[in-house]
Amino acid sequence: MLYPIATPTRALLDLSGLWKFMIDEELTPIDVNKPLPTEDVISVPASFNDQTASQKIRDHSGYVWYETNFEIAKPLRSQRLVLRFGSATHEAWVYLNGQEITHHKGGFTPFEVEINDYLQDSNNRLTVKLSNLLDYSTLPVGHYSESKDENGHIVRKVDENFDFFNYAGLQRPVKIYSTPQAHIDDIVIVPSVDLADHSASVHTTVKSSDDFDEIHVAILDQAGKVVTSGTGEDQTLAIRDVKLWQPLNAYLYTAKVDGIQNGKVVDTYSEPFGVRKIEVKNGQFLINGEPFYFKGFGKHEDTYVHGRGFNEPVNVLDINLMKDMGANSFRTSHYPYSEEMMRLCDREGIVVIDETTAVGLMVTFGFDVNMFADDDYEDTTWKELKTAEAHRQVIRELIDRDKNHASVVMWSIANEAATFSKGAHDYFKPLFDEARELDPQKRPCTYTSIMMATPKTDECIDLVDVIALNRYYGWYIGNGDLKTAETATRDELKEYQKQYPDKPIMYTEYGADTVAGLHSKYGEPFSEEFQEDYYRMSSKVFDEIPNFVGEQLWNFADFQTKFGIQRVQGNKKGIFTRAREPKMVVRYLKNRWTGIPNLGYKTK
Ligand code: BDP
Hints:
The chain is of the alpha/beta class. It is 17% helix and 31% strand. The protein folds into two domains: 12-179, Jelly Rolls; 278-594, Alpha-Beta Barrel (TIM Barrel). The protein has helices at residues 55-58, 312-324, 339-348, 381-384, 388-402, 424-438, 482-499, 528-542, 585-594; strands at residues 12-14, 17-24, 41-44, 63-70, 80-85, 91-96, 99-105, 111-114, 124-131, 142-148, 154-160, 174-179, 184-194, 199-208, 214-220, 226-231, 234-239, 253-261, 264-273, 278-281, 284-287, 290-291, 294-298, 329-331, 351-355, 408-415, 445-449, 467-470, 505-509, 548-554.
């Protein structure tokens, strides 16, 4: 799916701003033929939750309504007009002038619909009903329950089966774009690099409305100069003296696609792309033929007031903070991030592990890891969950959206699923097959593994190209005891290395809750000293393991979660606070990471 942009043949309207907003109390039905019965407003794009002084609205589980009015300039009415949501969390029913025009489930991927047939000459009313409900059939996974209040009204409850606040709303840009009737629908770009020859062949496939006489593709360099061009829906173009997209040293070409009718350009679209080669070989993760070392983070889209809403200044700041520390990568834990962030990473040379919304796929998830030691413990996840269809859908939509991004080097199919439990392999095998089949660039695939999934118990390691571990020795296990944690970390990594000598291993989570400003002469847990000691211990072990190809710590910044006795206004494992102030450990990590080359670490 193409990102919406203005081009010489396309106009773009942004519906950001104040929309009418109300929660649905489910007392009287809402009539979509009339304006919403409220004067309250909310800002779009953003989560609705933190824009209110009312706890009832903030914590509402169920349905909410959004409404805006817009005008379309007359000259545009002859064009094909498409309404596009960057996302709508988690399920949306969309009405234009009272008629339902589309429905979408899944809160972190875009969807669009043609609106010409529903438009009025003026004062178009766009109404959106959203649900923030999650259950055993959705991704993310929530425990859903219903009860009745004293008046017999339904009370819905979602207990998140994951460790982040269930922010919802129109969290990403809502836009209308125009195209001519004959239009380009999608562009697929697959570069193959010949490293020895300093050349690349770029395979482009253009999907269109089928009424062009000819499709023309020109590849422009960063200065806008045409380096090669050709004609055809499906073709391979050669680039000599190719400039590679490298980690933290990005070079972007542009594929300028023209749809031609009677010798005239009718539709045109420009897609930026990078040329780079990704391989997993001999226990290493290679970018452009050289071993890459991941330095960076698991993150969240989470900021004050915006909630999980698009916050571009913070995205820019986060990337700058990462680069300043010598970091080169992050994972989009635990859902696809905004398209704007992916485009930013392409430009900045930030390497991304792109994750689906598959989080919470373990029905017994909790912070008490001791329960797993119990002989009677049995995990019944794969008997209970009905997420396979939603999972297939998000894989399809994520790959469709992000397939051309140079920054994306690997897909994470799930976070901390019960891969140790009976039925896991049957569940995951078709999903990995599908991802591999769908990705035109054939990137490696992984899932991030939960602590209970060990070299002994994990049933799905054969499915992954890279072993990605989320580990909390010294925090959830043996809290405060870094000596024992060091041994456990080392023993487990050695075991993985021994059993899977050809698979690269990395940490995709490790960390310790740390209250900014809390200090301890004794290095007690929650202090800034402990956080630093914890990371020093971990780094030491990482450097001993030959196939260890990267460290992405948990978390870039403190973030909001649901309530719980383990959370004090959220998760405090950030190395930055939620306001992006550095904790003490940032100096240590900056020092370490600026000393580790992006390419060739341990081999030079
Ligand atoms: C892991 C999850 C992550 C949590 C983290 C933690 O993948 O979402 O926030 O641990 O407990 O279970 O801090």
